[in-house]
Amino acid sequence: MLTMETANGTNRVTRQNVKTETDSRLKEGITLHLSRWNGLQMAVQNQWGGHDSIQKFHQLAADILSWFSQSNAPLDVEDLETLLHERMLLSFNTEIEDGSIEEVAEQLMILHEDYLRGNH
User: Fold this and answer.
1) Cα(8)–Cα(23) distance, rounded to whole angstroms?
2) Residue 20 lies in a domain
3) How many CA atoms lie within 13 A of 116 on its CB side?
4) 77 located within any domain
5) Would you say residue 52 lies in a domain?
6) How many domains does the chain have?
7) What is the rounded CA–CA span in Å between residue 48 and residue 104?
8) Among 43, 80, 93, 113, which lies 20 to 30 A Cα-Cα from 58?
């Protein structure tokens, strides 16, 4: 455990605090990448997922963060592509066939790799 204390013991920094801050930054990065994805933005703006499309957008970002954080096996870009494809279809009733799912998945994998290296 990484701990830092002052004389009166009020300032404590633990690995959990650092992980939470890093996860928050990673989620911001994920959200930013998703907000630049035209197919997803069209689905949200036109409410193809219903009146709660914006909540579904944020849930997708949270689910991607969870996917990155929870996996014990090596992460595979094809699994992320499958996740994105399924969510677009099930949450937004949208079939994306323009190659953007693969591009977004690759960008998200690079983002995650950067965060693992501490480049955030």
Assistant:
1) 29
2) no
3) 10
4) yes
5) yes
6) 1
7) 20
8) 113
Residue 69 belongs to what domain range? 26-116
Quote the pTM value.
0.79
In whole angstroms, how large is the CA radius of gyration of the chain?
Answer: 17
- The pLDDT profile of the chain, 120 residues, written as one tens digit per residue, is 333 344 444 444 333 444 566 688 899 999 999 999 999 999 999 999 999 999 999 999 999 999 998 877 789 999 999 999 999 999 999 999 999 999 999 999 999 999 988 876
Q: Is 18 domain-assigned?
A: no
50: left (phi over 0), alpha (psi -120 to 50) or beta: left
Residues 114 and 26: their CA atoms lie apart, in Å, by 10
Q: In residues, how long is the chain? A: 120
CA pair distance 86, 14, nearest whole angstrom: 37
Q: Are 88 and 101 in contact (CB under 8 A)?
A: yes
